[in-house]
Automatic annotation (TrEMBL):
Its EC number is 6.3.1.2. Belongs to the glutamine synthetase family. NCBIfam families: gln_syn_GlnII. It is an enzyme of class 6 (ligase). GO terms for cellular component: cytoplasm. GO terms for molecular function: ATP binding; glutamine synthetase activity. It comes from Geodia barretti. One of its GO terms (biological process) is glutamine biosynthetic process. This is Glutamine synthetase. Residues 89-335 form the GS catalytic domain. It comes from the Eukaryota. It catalyses: L-glutamate + NH4(+) + ATP = L-glutamine + ADP + phosphate + H(+). Keywords: ATP-binding, Ligase, Nucleotide-binding. Residues 4-83 form the GS beta-grasp domain.
Length: 335
């Protein structure tokens, strides 16, 4: 009887920003990946004298790295009594999605990130001393003086498609060596499961190229854009009419602080009011406004229905946490 390799992937307990971990299990063909475990004392998830943590598969897809019948297995972390581990943010996210299932909320997350040379000395393609030419020509650029890391980006897009992830597109960003991919539109927690797997694939494919991707929200100080994770969302009501789109923006306004403190470590470094951001100390929404906290896309204003974009989340945010907060804030206000 033959086997397949299942790469179990989970979110660890690193503070203030959790990291991905993974390890492989050999599983007999025809069987689903079973519940498994790991040493939580090595991932900041348990003390040494009581170290066992449980991995429960929540989303499985083809493994585009190993190919064949091999699989990637996104897991949530449980305690040995099978209740959610304190670091498990997926459980509350799934509960919120369940509670507000009638709203049929969809999310589209724009994940920005930055490539560094293997040892994270400087962004990929930047000179050893000094800086590249100022920002202006790099966003959606073409040419070896404009974009850095495209072979990795293309491999990553292919891998996400082969895995069956709901990837919507890619683009080069404003800061050289900075890129973006989008996951969605789909419901949560699926969008977050897909995003965590897509992040894992980015790091894993970076290994092959000797390039490290980082979700650092402000990888270079000074006059260089930070990295965000704009979170677009819609309820069924928003997809049918304009008033619910405005009501959603107002609900976010009323809960600004609670969202900001959960939108990724170092958010005050990125949301300065410059570089296409609104200061973290303010909340503003507006049509087509990329200096606002929340943007209503122009087509949505024209059509009188659609979705809105929460521009505040950092690149290093936890998509379980961010989508849970948006679900709770927007749906509770509309209930
Ligand atoms: P931007 O102009 O801000 O760069 P992008 O094209 O990068 O926008 O991302 C927009 C995202 O919004 C995409 O991931 C897309 O899937 C998502 N999206 C589109 N329609 C909806 C919708 N009705 N609800 C939620 N997300 C949506
Ligand atoms: Mn061991
Ligand atoms: Mn975008
Ligand atoms: Mn972007
Ligand atoms: Mn955007």
């Amino acid at each position: 009887m033959s086997n397949y390799k299942a790469e179990y992937i989970w979110v660890d307990g690193t503070q203030p920003t959790a990291k991905l971990r993974s390890k492989a299990k050999v599983v007999p063909m025809g069987e689903e990946p079973p519940i498994w475990g790991f040493d939580g004392s090595s991932t900041n998830q348990a003390p040494g004298e009581n170290s066992d943590c449980v991995l429960r598969p929540v989303f499985t897809c083809p493994d585009p790295i190993r190919e064949g019948d091999h699989k990637l297995v996104m897991c949530e972390v449980l305690l040995t009594d099978m209740t959610p581990h304190p670091t498990n943010t997926r459980a509350a996210c799934a509960a919120a999605a369940e509670q507000y299932a009638d709203f049929d909320m969809w999310f589209g997350i724009e994940q920005e990130y930055t490539f560094f040379n293997g040892i994270r000395s400087q962004p990929l393609g930047w000179p050893d001393n000094g800086f590249p030419a100022p920002q202006g020509g790099y966003y959606c650029g073409v040419g070896s003086d404009e974009v850095f890391g495209r072979p990795v980006v293309e491999d990553h897009l292919d891998a996400c498609l082969a895995a069956g992830l709901q990837i919507a597109g890619i683009n080069a960003e404003v800061m050289p060596a900075q890129w973006e991919f989008q996951i969605g539109p789909i419901g949560s927690p699926a969008v977050a499961d897909h995003l965590w797997i897509a992040r894992w694939l980015l790091y894993r494919i970076g290994e092959k190229h000797g390039v490290a991707a980082t979700l650092d929200p402000k990888p270079v100080r000074g006059d260089w854009n930070g990295a965000g994770a704009h979170t677009n969302f819609s309820t069924r009501q928003m997809r049918e009419a304009y008033d619910p789109c405005v009501a959603a923006a107002e609900a976010l306004a009323a809960n600004h602080h609670e969202h900001i403190v959960n939108y990724g470590d170092g958010i005050e470094m990125r949301l300065t009011g410059l570089h296409e951001t609104c200061s973290y100390q303010e909340f503003r929404y507006g049509v087509s406004d990329r200096g606002a906290s929340v943007r209503i896309p122009w087509q949505v204003a024209r059509d009188g229905k659609g979705y809105i974009e929460d521009r505040r989340p950092n690149a290093n945010m936890d998509p379980y946490k961010v989508t849970e907060l948006i679900l709770n804030t927007v749906c509770e206000a509309a209930s």
